[in-house]
Protein backbone atom coordinates (compact mmCIF):
# COMPACT_ATOMS: atom_id res chain seq x y z
CA UNK A 1 0.00 0.00 0.00
CA UNK A 2 0.99 3.63 -0.36
CA UNK A 3 1.12 4.12 3.43
CA UNK A 4 3.72 1.40 3.76
CA UNK A 5 5.68 2.24 0.64
CA UNK A 6 6.40 5.84 1.57
CA UNK A 7 8.18 5.10 4.87
CA UNK A 8 10.08 2.26 3.19
CA UNK A 9 11.16 4.49 0.34
CA UNK A 10 12.19 7.25 2.74
CA UNK A 11 14.21 4.78 4.80
CA UNK A 12 16.02 3.48 1.72
CA UNK A 13 16.66 7.01 0.52
CA UNK A 14 18.08 7.91 3.93
CA UNK A 15 20.54 5.02 3.94
CA UNK A 16 21.71 5.54 0.36
CA UNK A 17 22.12 9.30 0.57
CA UNK A 18 24.00 9.07 3.85
CA UNK A 19 26.75 7.05 2.15
CA UNK A 20 27.97 10.50 1.04
CA UNK A 21 29.13 11.13 4.58
CA UNK A 22 32.68 9.93 3.97
CA UNK A 23 33.06 10.23 0.21
CA UNK A 24 35.97 12.50 -0.61
CA UNK A 25 35.71 15.12 -3.36
CA UNK A 26 36.36 13.66 -6.82
CA UNK A 27 38.40 15.47 -9.43
CA UNK A 28 35.84 16.66 -11.97
CA UNK A 29 36.20 14.78 -15.21
CA UNK A 30 39.49 13.09 -14.30
CA UNK A 31 38.13 9.99 -12.58
CA UNK A 32 41.12 10.11 -10.23
CA UNK A 33 41.27 10.34 -6.46
CA UNK A 34 42.42 13.57 -4.86
CA UNK A 35 45.66 13.32 -2.91
CA UNK A 36 46.02 14.03 0.81
CA UNK A 37 48.26 16.90 1.93
CA UNK A 38 51.95 16.24 2.53
CA UNK A 39 53.08 15.35 6.08
CA UNK A 40 53.36 18.41 8.29
CA UNK A 41 50.44 20.18 6.61
CA UNK A 42 48.63 20.37 9.95
CA UNK A 43 50.03 21.79 13.18
CA UNK A 44 49.46 18.97 15.65
CA UNK A 45 51.21 20.69 18.55
CA UNK A 46 47.84 21.83 19.92
CA UNK A 47 46.36 18.31 19.84
CA UNK A 48 46.36 16.14 22.94
CA UNK A 49 46.07 12.37 23.09
CA UNK A 50 42.37 11.54 23.43
CA UNK A 51 41.11 14.71 21.72
CA UNK A 52 38.02 14.37 19.53
CA UNK A 53 38.71 15.70 16.04
CA UNK A 54 35.97 16.82 13.62
CA UNK A 55 36.41 17.45 9.91
CA UNK A 56 33.40 19.11 8.20
CA UNK A 57 32.74 17.50 4.82
CA UNK A 58 30.38 18.49 2.00
CA UNK A 59 27.25 17.08 3.64
CA UNK A 60 28.26 15.72 7.00
CA UNK A 61 31.16 15.59 9.47
CA UNK A 62 33.90 12.98 9.83
CA UNK A 63 35.18 12.18 13.32
CA UNK A 64 38.27 10.66 14.89
CA UNK A 65 40.18 10.30 18.17
CA UNK A 66 43.73 11.67 18.30
CA UNK A 67 46.20 9.10 19.63
CA UNK A 68 49.31 11.27 19.67
CA UNK A 69 52.36 11.34 17.39
CA UNK A 70 50.31 12.48 14.38
CA UNK A 71 47.99 9.44 14.57
CA UNK A 72 44.19 9.42 14.47
CA UNK A 73 41.85 6.46 15.07
CA UNK A 74 38.67 6.70 13.03
CA UNK A 75 35.96 4.41 11.71
CA UNK A 76 35.82 4.11 7.92
CA UNK A 77 33.58 1.99 5.69
CA UNK A 78 35.85 -0.42 3.80
CA UNK A 79 35.15 -3.56 1.79
CA UNK A 80 38.77 -4.80 1.85
CA UNK A 81 38.76 -6.42 5.35
CA UNK A 82 36.07 -8.75 4.04
CA UNK A 83 38.53 -10.28 1.58
CA UNK A 84 41.92 -10.09 3.26
CA UNK A 85 43.59 -9.87 6.63
CA UNK A 86 46.76 -8.35 5.17
CA UNK A 87 47.31 -5.27 7.31
CA UNK A 88 49.61 -3.67 4.75
CA UNK A 89 46.89 -3.71 2.11
CA UNK A 90 44.15 -2.59 4.49
CA UNK A 91 46.29 0.25 5.85
CA UNK A 92 46.59 1.86 2.42
CA UNK A 93 44.44 4.98 2.08
CA UNK A 94 40.82 3.94 1.48
CA UNK A 95 39.72 4.75 -2.07
CA UNK A 96 36.19 5.89 -2.93
CA UNK A 97 35.47 2.48 -4.49
CA UNK A 98 36.51 0.63 -1.34
CA UNK A 99 34.50 3.05 0.77
CA UNK A 100 31.27 2.87 -1.26
CA UNK A 101 31.41 -0.93 -1.44
CA UNK A 102 32.01 -1.00 2.32
CA UNK A 103 28.89 1.09 2.90
CA UNK A 104 26.82 -1.19 0.68
CA UNK A 105 28.22 -4.35 2.32
CA UNK A 106 28.04 -2.73 5.78
CA UNK A 107 31.65 -3.52 6.61
CA UNK A 108 34.25 -1.15 8.02
CA UNK A 109 37.37 -0.89 10.11
CA UNK A 110 38.58 1.31 12.89
CA UNK A 111 41.93 2.33 11.44
CA UNK A 112 44.83 4.52 12.49
CA UNK A 113 45.99 7.11 9.96
CA UNK A 114 48.08 10.24 9.94
CA UNK A 115 46.27 13.50 10.59
CA UNK A 116 46.80 14.38 6.91
CA UNK A 117 45.13 11.18 5.67
CA UNK A 118 42.32 11.52 8.21
CA UNK A 119 41.46 15.17 7.46
CA UNK A 120 42.21 15.00 3.72
CA UNK A 121 42.71 18.74 3.43
CA UNK A 122 39.68 19.73 5.50
CA UNK A 123 39.67 22.03 8.50
CA UNK A 124 39.84 20.37 11.92
CA UNK A 125 37.77 21.22 15.00
CA UNK A 126 39.06 19.97 18.37
CA UNK A 127 36.67 18.77 21.09
CA UNK A 128 33.87 20.84 19.59
CA UNK A 129 31.27 18.37 20.91
CA UNK A 130 32.41 18.65 24.53
CA UNK A 131 30.03 21.56 25.06
CA UNK A 132 27.11 19.21 24.37
CA UNK A 133 28.40 16.44 26.67
CA UNK A 134 30.14 18.52 29.34
CA UNK A 135 29.00 16.26 32.18
CA UNK A 136 30.00 13.07 30.35
CA UNK A 137 33.51 13.80 29.11
CA UNK A 138 35.88 10.97 30.01
CA UNK A 139 39.57 11.51 30.60
CA UNK A 140 41.71 11.95 27.49
CA UNK A 141 43.72 8.82 28.23
CA UNK A 142 40.55 6.77 28.70
CA UNK A 143 39.21 8.01 25.35
CA UNK A 144 42.45 7.11 23.58
CA UNK A 145 42.58 3.64 25.14
CA UNK A 146 38.99 2.93 24.15
CA UNK A 147 39.79 3.91 20.57
CA UNK A 148 42.91 1.73 20.48
CA UNK A 149 40.98 -1.31 21.78
CA UNK A 150 38.48 -1.00 18.92
CA UNK A 151 41.07 -0.84 16.12
CA UNK A 152 40.30 -3.48 13.50
CA UNK A 153 37.43 -4.76 11.37
CA UNK A 154 33.88 -4.01 12.48
CA UNK A 155 30.30 -3.95 11.24
CA UNK A 156 29.10 -0.68 9.71
CA UNK A 157 25.78 1.09 9.55
CA UNK A 158 25.19 4.57 8.21
CA UNK A 159 22.42 5.01 10.75
CA UNK A 160 23.46 3.00 13.78
CA UNK A 161 27.25 2.50 13.77
CA UNK A 162 29.19 5.22 11.99
CA UNK A 163 32.28 7.32 12.77
CA UNK A 164 30.33 9.60 15.13
CA UNK A 165 29.04 6.64 17.17
CA UNK A 166 32.66 5.50 17.48
CA UNK A 167 34.07 8.77 18.84
CA UNK A 168 31.16 9.53 21.18
CA UNK A 169 31.55 6.09 22.74
CA UNK A 170 35.28 6.67 23.18
CA UNK A 171 35.10 10.19 24.62
CA UNK A 172 31.67 10.33 26.29
CA UNK A 173 30.91 6.69 27.07
CA UNK A 174 27.74 6.55 24.95
CA UNK A 175 27.53 5.81 21.23
CA UNK A 176 25.31 8.46 19.66
CA UNK A 177 25.18 10.31 16.36
CA UNK A 178 23.67 13.79 16.49
CA UNK A 179 23.92 14.33 12.75
CA UNK A 180 22.05 11.08 12.12
CA UNK A 181 19.35 12.07 14.63
CA UNK A 182 18.95 15.41 12.87
CA UNK A 183 18.68 13.70 9.51
CA UNK A 184 16.10 11.21 10.79
CA UNK A 185 13.96 14.05 12.16
CA UNK A 186 13.97 15.60 8.70
CA UNK A 187 12.88 12.30 7.17
CA UNK A 188 10.05 11.98 9.72
CA UNK A 189 8.74 15.32 8.53
CA UNK A 190 8.81 14.02 4.96
CA UNK A 191 6.95 10.81 5.88
CA UNK A 192 4.10 12.77 7.48
CA UNK A 193 3.16 14.01 4.04
CA UNK A 194 2.31 10.73 2.31
CA UNK A 195 0.88 12.08 -0.92
CA UNK A 196 3.45 10.29 -3.07
CA UNK A 197 6.81 8.55 -2.95
CA UNK A 198 8.14 10.95 -5.56
CA UNK A 199 7.22 13.97 -3.46
CA UNK A 200 8.96 12.41 -0.46
CA UNK A 201 12.13 11.82 -2.48
CA UNK A 202 12.20 15.40 -3.78
CA UNK A 203 11.69 16.87 -0.32
CA UNK A 204 14.36 14.54 1.02
CA UNK A 205 16.89 15.79 -1.52
CA UNK A 206 15.99 19.37 -0.66
CA UNK A 207 16.53 18.56 3.01
CA UNK A 208 20.02 17.25 2.22
CA UNK A 209 20.86 20.58 0.61
CA UNK A 210 19.55 22.47 3.64
CA UNK A 211 21.71 20.35 5.93
CA UNK A 212 24.91 21.72 4.51
CA UNK A 213 25.46 21.19 0.79
CA UNK A 214 28.41 23.34 -0.22
CA UNK A 215 27.45 25.84 -2.97
CA UNK A 216 30.65 25.04 -4.86
CA UNK A 217 29.88 21.32 -5.10
CA UNK A 218 28.73 20.24 -8.54
CA UNK A 219 25.64 18.08 -8.96
CA UNK A 220 27.51 15.33 -10.86
CA UNK A 221 29.92 14.95 -7.95
CA UNK A 222 27.10 14.87 -5.39
CA UNK A 223 25.13 12.16 -7.15
CA UNK A 224 27.97 9.86 -8.25
CA UNK A 225 27.52 7.50 -5.25
CA UNK A 226 23.72 7.69 -5.57
CA UNK A 227 23.88 6.67 -9.25
CA UNK A 228 26.31 3.87 -8.39
CA UNK A 229 23.73 2.53 -5.93
CA UNK A 230 20.91 2.83 -8.50
CA UNK A 231 23.02 0.97 -11.07
CA UNK A 232 23.73 -1.81 -8.58
TrEMBL record:
Domain of life: Eukaryota
Catalytic activity: 1,2-didodecanoyl-sn-glycero-3-phosphocholine + all-trans-retinol--[retinol-binding protein] = 2-dodecanoyl-sn-glycero-3-phosphocholine + all-trans-retinyl dodecanoate + apo--[retinol-binding protein]; 1,2-diheptanoyl-sn-glycero-3-phosphocholine + all-trans-retinol--[retinol-binding protein] = all-trans-retinyl heptanoate + 2-heptanoyl-sn-glycero-3-phosphocholine + apo--[retinol-binding protein]; all-trans-retinol--[retinol-binding protein] + a 1,2-diacyl-sn-glycero-3-phosphocholine = apo--[retinol-binding protein] + an all-trans-retinyl ester + a 2-acyl-sn-glycero-3-phosphocholine; 1,2-dihexadecanoyl-sn-glycero-3-phosphocholine + all-trans-retinol = all-trans-retinyl hexadecanoate + 2-hexadecanoyl-sn-glycero-3-phosphocholine
Species of origin: Sapayoa aenigma
EC number, as in UniProt: 2.3.1.135
Stated role: Transfers the acyl group from the sn-1 position of phosphatidylcholine to all-trans retinol, producing all-trans retinyl esters. Retinyl esters are storage forms of vitamin A. LRAT plays a critical role in vision. It provides the all-trans retinyl ester substrates for the isomerohydrolase which processes the esters into 11-cis-retinol in the retinal pigment epithelium; due to a membrane-associated alcohol dehydrogenase, 11 cis-retinol is oxidized and converted into 11-cis-retinaldehyde which is the chromophore for rhodopsin and the cone photopigments.
Active site: 163 (acyl-thioester intermediate)
Database matches in Pfam families: LRAT
Keyword match Transmembrane: yes
UniProt KW keywords: Acyltransferase, Cytoplasm, Endoplasmic reticulum, Endosome, Lipid metabolism, Membrane, Sensory transduction, Signal, Transferase, Transmembrane, Transmembrane helix, Vision
Record flagged with keyword Iron-sulfur: no
PROSITE patterns: LRAT (PS51934)
Compartments, as annotated in UniProt: Cytoplasm, Perinuclear region; Endoplasmic reticulum membrane; Late endosome; Rough endoplasmic reticulum
Protein's membrane topology: Single-pass membrane protein
GO BP term (any one): visual perception
Name of the protein this chain belongs to: Lecithin retinol acyltransferase
Amino acid sequence: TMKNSVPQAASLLLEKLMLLVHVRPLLTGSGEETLPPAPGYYDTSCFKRGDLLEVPRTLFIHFGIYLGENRVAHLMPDILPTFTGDRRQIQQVVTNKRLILGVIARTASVRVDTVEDFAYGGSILVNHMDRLFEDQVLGNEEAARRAEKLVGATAYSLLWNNCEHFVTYCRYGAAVSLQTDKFCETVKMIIRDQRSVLASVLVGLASIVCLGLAPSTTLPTIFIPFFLWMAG
